[in-house]
Amino acid sequence: MIAMQYKIVLPSDYPMALIEDRIEKNGHLLNGYPGLLFKAFLYSRKDADNYANPVNSYAPFYIWEDHLSMSTFLNSDGFKALCDHFGQPNIEIWFVEGEAIKPNSDDCFAVIQKGSKLDSDITAFNYTAWEPLSVNWASEGNKVVCAEQEVYAIGYVAQKAS
What percent of the residues of the chain are helix, what percent strand, and what percent coil, each to the nearest 5? Predict the structure, then answer.
């Protein structure tokens, strides 16, 4: 399995309702996407009351079955449209170790920490940068343990067809 994330940092005055609407209107389009185990549509609002993140951003997090599925998506018209709108993002990739637990209906937040391996819902490793990744899903956004953690709201979770 492969974990993939890109983060599009938006201006501090960006109307984040546009990102929330985009997720609401388009999130379901990735349900059943070939090779996608799940995609958590993550975003952050610097003005959020229930979690802390210093920037406005759109930062989706994907778990792919394999690199061919990921590559097919990155060469799709849908991803091209995102790049045309926001610019081509820097994509980070990690190899997943063990099981990748997807968020459940109670989870509203993702807590992501790069650089250290913690007991987490998803543990992965980037062998190019020698960087571990830990991802935890949470029902509350205020449970940040250290400054290296980033907290994102979960707008929607697209998943593999059952």
Answer: 20, 40, 40
Q: What is the pLDDT of residues 148-159, one digit of tens each?
A: 789 999 999 999
The residues pairing with 93 across neighbouring beta strands, listed in sequence order, are: 4
Q: Which of 2, 5, 8 is nearest to 87 (CA)?
A: 8
What pLDDT is attached to residue 125?
96
Q: Which residue has the tokens 């990102």?
A: 19
pLDDT tens digits for 99-143?
A: 999 999 999 999 999 988 778 999 999 999 999 999 999 987 665
Return the SS3 of 161. coil
Whether residue 114 contacts residue 139, with contact meaning beta carbons closer than 8 Å, is answered with: no
Work out the number of other CB atoms within 10 angstroms of the CB of residue 27: 17
CB 3 within 8 A of CB 115: no
- Two tokens at 28? 């379901």
